[in-house]
Amino acid sequence: MTNQVSEFPTERTFRYQHSLPPLPVPSLEGSLANYLDAVRPFATEEEYQVTAAVVKRFGEGIGKDLHQKLLQRARTRRNWLEEWWLNAAYLEMRYPSQLNVNFGGPAPYLEHCWPPTEGVQLQRTSISMWHTLQYWDLLRTERLDPHKAGNVVLDMDQFRMLFCTCKVPGVTKDTIINYFKTESEGPCPSHVVVMCKGRFFSFDAVCDGHILTPPELLRQLTHVKQCCEGEPAGDGIAALTSEERTRWAKAREYLIGIDPANKTILETIQSSLFVVSLDDAKPYATAENYTPVSLEVLTGDPTIRWGDKSYNSISFANGTFGSNCDHAPFEGMVLVTHCYYVDQQLKATDGKWKGSETVRPMPLPEELVFTVDDRVRSDVAHAKQQYFETTQDLQVVCYAFTSFGKAAIKQRKLHPDTFIQLALQLAYYRQHGRLGSCYETAMTRRFYHGRTETMRPCTLEAQNWCHTMLLPAASAEAKRKALLLAFNKHNKLMAEAQNGKGFDRHLLGLYLIAKEEGLPMSDLFTDPLYSKSGGGGNFTLSTSLAGYTTVHGVGAPMVHHGYGFFYCISDDRIVASCSAWKSSPETDAETLFQNLVTSLHEMLHLATTAQL
Questions:
Q1: Is 165 helix (H, G, I), strand (E, B) or coil?
Q2: Residue 309 in 3-state DSSP?
Q3: Helix 374-391 and helix 245-258: axis angle, to 10°?
Q4: Residue 177: helix, strand or coil by DSSP?
Q5: Catalytic residues (predicted)?
Q6: How many Cβ atoms sit within 10 Å of the Cβ of residue 537?
Q7: DSSP annotation of 319
Q8: 127-170, pLDDT tens digit by residue?
């Protein structure tokens, strides 16, 4: 998804928001049939018959009533899922979100104009910030063309959440505060917050109606750095955002209670355009091995990133960059689109500023100093301890596979995303001797405020193909036929999910209707195959395509015995990040990636010989 930027756009960014179709409710019969099909690879014949009977009872009984209630809800809302999904998937969750929910990613700039280099951190940060501020201005003035899939218009609402957005912890449920406004809607905050050595600084990124230039931004960043050089580190209040959510909410309440000025500081951070983290770490990554940066953006210093912020831009001391974002307000696609814009701008200018060097007179950054006491210091110490204990358990690898990419796959008339997904299934099958329940993100943005649906790549056809690939006696023709059947099934399910005909969000809606009305829990949701196949957030493989640009991402696994797997596909390379928990004896991210490489080569060979 490339950025179409127009000086005089014919279509304003948010112009189609009111004409998008509502999110549909799939048929109950279709959803239950698709669910049964999805659990089959994980069941013996006896287990499957038990589950089939459970599903039949549900479909003929309480499921019918719940479905009618869901249809009634959909008649009064353009997106029946939106509020539920935000609450159930994000805001009501109580575990620490910074590592378990947030996503991040290394910036691809080191592949061309900005390799790791000492002594350029602030200079590069000022240029990167300037391009980011230009992107904010494009959204403010609605000069970013609406995204389309072919001729189908896609929802752009998530782009309102990239800037001036923050999650705020609550004792039982968090909230999201969004201060962004387009130019036609009114004034919008224009300050940024810079974090350095556990301290906070803020300055306005606009002066006399004009965005600060890189030399002006450099002056502000230099002042922040000079204030912190040789001085004791700050109190590190930001570490509290990495806490368990209820504990953080109570610590925040106490912080506000000891000094009302603390509330003003919190609001300044919350409403800021974005946070810039000046990080002393020097993760040395290359265009072939992104592991050091990928690990650092997920597990780095918690005192210099605000875990609840929609966008933390992380600037490392060796001139490399990354990001860390709260997942609640938007999908990774928003950040990928923004970062690709910056990447293309940097490429076009060779990473240099070619404009005026003049620095206008303007106020220096203001330090935001929290009032703290021993209890706050104790809360911060506890937060850092639990954070570091957890992060030390996370294994992350991120490599570029450079033997081939999208071009070679498409030349063989195969879908590149499906190709990677089936390669992953084969890699997992080879490593673990069984298939892994798998979640792949399906985009539902063709509907009003649509976000995602679950697409389950672990199909009977994928299972049969993996089994056939590892049979010594299987012929190339048998492997090829099994591969094509798996491809066709995957493509069919993905198209259905994107068109509002997936079943996972539908089942969630039925579950939540019952919960809201105090009805007894259906045995469909307590049936062992429900969780074994991934239901209820139990997918062994949590995967997402970051797109077909240079920008890639990284995130933690969904379950303790699982993997996080994120990838981007370029013409000549595939960059994939894989994460796992070290304390799980079952998993190893490095081995899974190496098995993936083997699978990719085998699949291309199979597809090539089939063409001959």
A1: strand
A2: strand
A3: 160
A4: strand
A5: 327 (proton acceptor)
A6: 15
A7: S
A8: 999 999 999 999 999 999 999 999 999 999 999 999 999 999 99
Among residues 373, 385, 336, the alpha carbon closest in space to that of 546 is found at 336
Q: Give the per-residue pLDDT at 208.
A: 96
The encoded tokens of residue 321 equal 């960059």
Using the Cα atoms of residue 220, residue 226, residue 231 and residue 232 in order, give the sign of their dihedral: positive
Residue 433 tokens, joined:
């001797």
Residue written as tokens 């209707």?
513
Give how far Cα 385 sits from Cα of 312, 388, 390, 600, Å.
22, 5, 9, 40
Residue 454 near residue 442 (C-beta atoms within 8 A): yes
Block means of pLDDT (10 residues each) for the chain, 612 residues, are: 56 96 98 98 98 98 97 98 97 95 91 94 98 98 96 97 98 98 98 98 97 98 97 97 98 98 98 98 94 96 98 98 97 96 96 96 98 98 98 98 98 97 98 96 98 98 98 96 98 98 98 95 96 97 96 96 98 97 98 98 91 52
Distance (Å, whole) CA 485 – CA 471: 17
Please report the pLDDT score of residue 102 as a whole number: 96
Please spell the DSSP secondary structure of 534-567, one letter per residue.
TTTT--SEEEEEEESSS---B---SSTT-EEEEE
257/238 Cα distance (integer angstroms) = 17
Beta bridge partners of 490: none
Q: How far apart are CA 555 and CA 563, in angstroms?
A: 9
User: Based on the number of CB atoms within 10 Å of its own CB, is 181 exposed (0-12), middle (13-18) or buried (19 or more)?
Assistant: middle
List phi, psi (to 5°) of 577.
-110, 140
Q: What is the DSSP code (8-state) at residue 42?
A: G
Per-residue model confidence (pLDDT) at position 510: 98
At 6, list the tokens: 């127009």
Q: Give CA–CA dist 26/501, Å, rounded.
A: 5
* Alpha-carbon gap, residue 509 to 84, rounded angstroms: 8
Closest by CA position to 137, among listed 221, 219, 212, 217: 212
Instruction: State residue 612's pLDDT score.
Output: 45
Q: What are phi and psi of 431, to 5 degrees?
A: -80, -40
Residues marked as catalytic: 327
Could you please report the per-residue DSSP string of 88-144?
Answer: IIIIT--S-HHHHT-EEEE-GGGGTT--S-TT-HHHHHHHHHHHHHHHHHHHHTT-B
H or E element in which residue 41 lies:
none
The pLDDT, as a whole number, for residue 1 is: 47
Put simply, whether the predicted model's pTM sits higher than 0.90 gets the answer: yes
CA atoms of 101 and 523, how far apart (whole Å): 28
Tokens 């494009």 locate to 138
Determine the residue type at 68. Answer: Q
How many other CB atoms sit within 10 Å of the CB of residue 286?
Answer: 15
pLDDT tens digits, one per residue of 14-42: 999 999 999 999 999 999 999 999 999 99
- Cα dist from 401 to 13, 267, 404, 566, whole Å: 35, 43, 7, 13
For 106, phi then psi, to 5°, come to -80, 145
**Vertex 83 angle, CA 81 and 87, to 5°:** 110
